[in-house]
Amino acid sequence: MIEANLQNTKKCLLGLTQKELQELALSFDEPAYRGKQLANWLYHQNISSWDEVKNFPKSFKQKLEEGTTISNIEFVESKFSSDDSIKCLFRSKDGYFLETVLIRKNGRHTICVSSQLGCKMNCSFCASSKEGFIRNLKATEIVSQLFLLKQITGERVDNIVYMGMGEPLENFDAVMKSIEIFNSDWGFHIGARKITVSTVGLVPAIKKFSQEKLRQIRLSISVHSPFDDVRREIVPINRKYDLTELMDVLRNEKGRYGREYTFEYTLLKGINDRPEDAVELSKMANDVGAKVNLIAYNPIPDASFERSSLAVMRRFREILDKKKIRNTLRISSGADIDAACGQLRLQRHREQKG
Ligand code: SF4
């Protein structure tokens, strides 16, 4: 496996577009088509060493070895859960931990990538923001998560969801560039319909996202309560962009996506799992044509929230069903591997600080 080179001077190749790889080849006095070949070796062949590359002259390989690095994050550890999920912990060049999860379910392999180190959004039930926000991830660090996870697990990846640590639309340019690399024929060639970007509800960024040429990419919105007074407490961004504003932008931009929205809804005992929550959520989903993904909460040590009982979760679903809202219930992939978003990273971060 390729380990991240910790020297700052080396250019990292993962995260470069085919055009940028062509420019890099030219800067090494090689023909531009070497850039296309580089894209193929990196994104299609997932190489672990330049020794595997047969069609490059020795001199070019040497230049690549000396002047570039393939990935700029390093693998730290992986944890397997009984439900077949794998959580990988990586470390950035500047020494911070980040997490990536591979969820294997119903024959589909979905990777959940992180887009930031920490998170500014401070959702009260989430581990990712508990140690504050450090910085945005670079496109190369987002792309490296998929590249290394494929190497480590040897698994194929069918779907990508931007639902790991961070608010993807806050790191707009890097996320868009990583999507280009995941989606392009010369890149990982993962269909746009298999990519989901999640947001906690940054209204201006949703507008901007809808103007990108990203039709077919799914936008998922973390709703977590259909009532402003509750949502303000658990999803603080609601104090800036309330549900009226959020619903307005979703309604206005609906036609541009070409896909239905998804509402993410983490069920928290006694907070947002009442029948009236389900009824109101149904109205919202119906209004903008959204499907609802219910998520059973994974408790974290720093928050006092509890998971709703199975009976309550079922009752919630029944109401959605009656209102004809398409929905799923995810009972935690990897409950036994510190599955809550950001939790493994938080533990390692605290151990490191002692
Ligand atoms: S739920 Fe998402 S947006 Fe909210 S703090 Fe966690 S990572 Fe950030």
General description of the model:
The chain has 354 residues and is an alpha/beta fold. The chain folds into 2 domains: 11-69, DNA polymerase, domain 1 (Orthogonal Bundle); 73-353, Alpha-Beta Barrel (TIM Barrel). The protein contains 11 helices and 14 strands. The strands form 3 sheets. The protein has a 10-stranded mixed beta sheet, sandwiched between helices. Residues 1-7 and 333-337 have low confidence and may be disordered. Bound molecules: iron/sulfur cluster. The site of iron/sulfur cluster has 13 residues, from loops.
Task: Provide a compact summary of the structure.
The chain is an alpha/beta fold. Helices cover 36% and strands 20% of the residues.
Mean pLDDT: 89
Count of helical regions: 11
* CA(first)-CA(last) distance: 29 Å
Helix content: 25-40%
CATH class of the largest domain: Alpha Beta
Main β-sheet description: 10 strands, mixed
Number of domains: 2
Enumerate the distinct ligands. Answer: iron/sulfur cluster
Using brief descriptors, characterize the structure shown.
DNA polymerase, domain 1, binds iron/sulfur cluster, 354 residues, alpha/beta, two-stranded parallel ribbon, single chain, TIM Barrel, disordered N terminus, 2 domains, ten-stranded mixed β-sheet
